[in-house]
Design a protein that fits this description.
There is one protein chain. The protein has 99 residues and is an all-alpha fold. It has a single domain (2-98), classed as Serine Threonine Protein Phosphatase 5, Tetratricopeptide repeat, CATH 1.25.40.10. 80% of the residues lie in helices and 0% in strands. The chain is built from five helices and no strands. Helix 3 (43-56) packs antiparallel against helix 4 (61-73). It starts with a helix and ends with a helix.
């Protein structure tokens, strides 16, 4: 049910909200779809959903975190490490900007 509702949101006409804001909202929706797949242990779908999220918002920390976890479950260690490094970089950047 949750996945269906998120996909319906993603399919909304982009004219409903300011385009950049809609893009970020859709990225978050894909990430939430990934969370549902994670709970179902469907790791390939977690990767797919979070990859779509990152195409829309390449700074979405939760998408890097969740995709890294999914890669680890699939024993794709290089990919998992790459996402962990990107997550660390973005987190440090965020902390630096806030200071």
């Amino acid at each position: 049910m949750a996945i269906k509702q998120m996909k319906e949101f993603i399919d909304l006409d982009d004219d409903v909200v300011e385009p950049e804001k809609m893009k970020l909202m859709k990225a978050k929706a894909y990430q939430k779809i990934g969370v549902v797949h994670m709970l179902q242990q469907q790791y390939h779908k977690v990767i797919e959903a979070n990859t779509k999220a990152l195409l829309l918002d390449p700074r979405l920390l939760a998408a890097f975190r969740d995709r890294s976890i999914a890669y680890s479950h699939l024993e794709l260690h290089e990919e998992a490490e790459s996402d962990r490094k990107q997550l660390e970089f973005l987190t440090r950047e965020l902390v630096f900007v806030r200071k």
